[in-house]
Amino acid sequence: MKRVISILMCALFMLVSIGNLGVAQQQPVTLKVGTFDNWYTPKSFALNLPVWQEVEKRLNIKIQWEVAPPPQWGEIITTRFAAGKDLPEIVGGFFDVMQYAQAGLIIPLNDLIDKYAPNIRAYFKEHPEIKKLLTAPDGKIYHLSSVIGKLGGAHGFVIRQDWLDELGLKQPQTLDDWYKVLEAFKKDDPNRNGKKDEIPFCVEYGGHQLAGVFSWAYGLHGFYSDYFWPDKSGKVVYEVMDPKFKELLTMLNKWYKEGLIDPEFATMTYDKFIARLTSNNVGAFNRFVHWIDMLQATMRKEYPKVDWRGTVPPQGPYGDRLMERYGPISGVFVITKDCKNPEAAIKLFDYIWASKEGQILMTFGIEGLSYTMKGGVPRVTDFVLKNPDGLGPWEAIRSIGAWPNLPYRQSDLFYQQVYSPKVVEAFKKCEKYLVDPFPGINMLSTKEEDEILKAKWPDIDTYVSEMRDKFITGQESLDNFDKFITQLKAMGIEDIIKVYQARYDRFLKAK
Amino acid sequence: MLGHISKDTTIRIMWRSVKRDRYLLMLISPVIVYYIIFHYVPMYGALIAFKDYNPGIGFYSSPWVGLKWFKQFFESFYFWRLIRNAILLNVYGIIFSFPIPIIFALLLNEVRDGFFKRSIQTISYLPHFISLVVIVGMIVNFLSPVDGIVNMFLKSIGKEPINFMGDPRWFRFLYISSGIWQEFGWSSIIYLAALSAIDPTLYDAAKVDGANRWQQILNITLPGIMPTIMILLILNVGNLLSVGFEKIILMYQPMTYEVADVISTYTYRRGILGADYSFAAAVGLFNSVINFMLLVTFNRISKRLTEISLW
Amino acid sequence: MVGGIEKVEFRKSNLESVFDMLIYTVLTFAALVTLYPFIYIISMSISSPEHVLQQDIWFLPKGFSVGAYKLVFENPDVWRAYYNTIWYTLVGTTINVLMTVIGAYPLSRKNLIGRNFFTFFITFTMFFSGGLIPSFLLIKNLGLYNTRWAMVLPGAASAWYIIIARTYFQSSIPDGLIDAAKIDGCNDISILFRIVLPLSAPIIAVLTLFYAVGHWNSFFNALLYLPDKNLQPIQIYLVRVLIQASPELIGQIQNEFARSAYFIQLKYAVIIITILPIICVYPFLQKYFVKGVMIGAIKE
Question: Which residue in chain B has the smallest CA separation from A487?
């Protein structure tokens, strides 16, 4: 009798333990994630949006969100890092990785990737340039970044095709063409309201954008690369000191004086820019090409003939024609020292950033709700294209937590389905001119390099911005350009160039 | 021997004063405790201006670098320009915008109709609550060389449109006058409170003596609020180097840097390059030291000239 | 003789009425100039979105739409946020005014021992502070992080207002009154509460107003110390609803979706929503410091 009981007890005990084991295995791991909140602000990530519920289900994790609106997040996360403890386990933002890595606040990912992240390893093999950009000076990887789609990242030239038609002009191909077209816009009243109130060309980000996007026609890289670029021998130069930059400024000065450029280009704000574009006064601008859709929708009621089209970037006098794109990576996502389960954290990254399934979940959302599979390819549904609550496609897809502020890879396929054929066509025209920005911009710095940058660059940047705008508007005569260059050298531009050279060399060497 | 007796007496005098003022000291003690806990205890943080602060290593282990950041700041190409811009903006501010709330309060004080008085007063403070983004947005719109009201008016009388926001010569004027517009109503409230506390019998006595309104203002009203005016003036001088960066950021652009760029905006742009605690702390400390010295000096001047001072 | 006096009086009143006219004109002008932006904002917040986009509204609204307001109120969180703000304002302002008064009154007594020291001690903190990080650490170490007290304790007293209140007590309360009370045997505490405070309606009203408005608009402290959504005040909520693109995020928002124009209108609606409660409460405080109502109170 006693034996029976003890056997029963053992069996019971075993059953319970196994049962417990099963229960223990099913306990989801909690991950504290701190990042800037959803760009679609009414749906904070803290509300546990559908896409992330799905992630939790698939990976058996539970996410605790610690978020704040994007404009405030920078200061908040800076302060929390500074306090040094009780950090979230995963952190996203736009901050200086090396400083926190050196302080031991974030952990290197190499071993974790080797052990637990097969998708990331595969991705790195296929895309070594991304791996290089993520590699720190000490050879370790401390962060992941989102990978920007080609379609979304380019600042393209957009023009009023209906105005061109009205005046019998073709889309401009060279800078000379642009000059003639802008002049015609100014003189010949294409909006046919009897007033010469046209503003031929407009930008939102002031002199930086104005000079930057036209610098492409001179073979310079002024918008995303800040004019740092390696010459043919691999030596990094600061193109501002190139005589072609002076030519660019001379041209812009001429255009400005003749009223071809918005007189308020330097003080433009987002609100004002939209107001200008939608008031039927602007002939051409440079901004995200997909704004065509929004502008068409907004303006069609009042101005039925409106027809915005994208053009190819202009060709300059030396035959250059290029277009810098934004990216290829953006954002910084790390695992902090307070992470209790780094394995779960890297597996999260592995899934959402590097796996095929993860990418679809991050960019297309929930199957049946925001997309369906047709012939093995995801296709967005009317939830996105004709949202019942009147949301635009981006608002709709973000409202369920897709296109998040955690590392993911953007999908050109999604862009193509969401943007109108006009936008896709505009993009296709420009695709072959796209150029990635100078890799040195994205590479991380050593402590010494960082100090040099911080000590000298703010003054140089201030000086260049001031002088650039003054040269364009004529407040400063272009005869003083050589003095300008001399001053730059006196301010230590050579040291800055050396830093970028070092970063570039590391990019070339990294594997 | 004599010295020994004096010390004893001094202590006894002090002790007697403490006893005499014991209730006052009791009253003020929670306030002192508050300041110790929330202001003096964290003050060690100011020392990161002399360190190369790295948050991971922590405050105590971060290395000392002495005056390195200060040197870097002083050696900046734009150091003098930043200081000059900040001081000029504030000095012009004191000269032009400091008197306006006072005058406004005095004018309001002369009005007898309670309804009119309260309505005007209420309306006057409304701009204080409008966010800077909207205020600057409105200004930019009015002054637009393309479609702003001011330039349309100029065009109609045959003049060339002026690009106000892009012209360094207009910046200070616009910055200060928009500040007056936004703040004079709200700032006048303190003066109104001080005015309402002036003994009305003084006015009655003056009227009997035949004083007219103007003389009443000069001899009763103004002296009555002079302590308030002087104290506020001293406090304002204690802010001479500090210019709020938010408004400047919204109003400036590279072409107006030469008059608009101040210490706070410069530090802000540098901070975009990456977290820079120690440098920012050093600049802040420099700011505070200069401001404080100005305050102490002006306090002493005021004490001598008007007998009104902070201490 | 009689004619002479009449002439003088006539001239005097003529001058006075010119003076009056001038005052009324100037004040009316001031009121118009400050009323205009307010009307502009109301118009922008209720106009139809197309006109807001094109920015062709100068004074009166064009079209009509309350879409922006709907955006703010559609989320039920807004009511909890309002509740939080009211809590912080009431509790915070009470603490503030109390602390300011018990700090300022002793300092206003010219022969208080240590008066200069205390004034210096308090004023010094207006200039020198440890910065954000040590304060953040302090709040955490005191266990105030993520509690309501983090909103009302760190700013319990403002040196600036203590000094202003001190100036008021010094110059507006006749010393004779206080001496008389002392002779009658009152101690300082009862003097403060029974005699001085009742005569200090203007400054109490002003302190209440300034502190209350400070709490009403407070934003950054909440962002830093209150990660819990349920404790957050209305300003945080409004920022959540408001999409703001700040300058340093150039390029990061590269697929900024087509914002519906309501969002551009939002910042105007937000101002109106923030200011309306203040306008409603303000007259109750105003009557204490706009002279004309409290005559004779001093003579009691």
Answer: B77
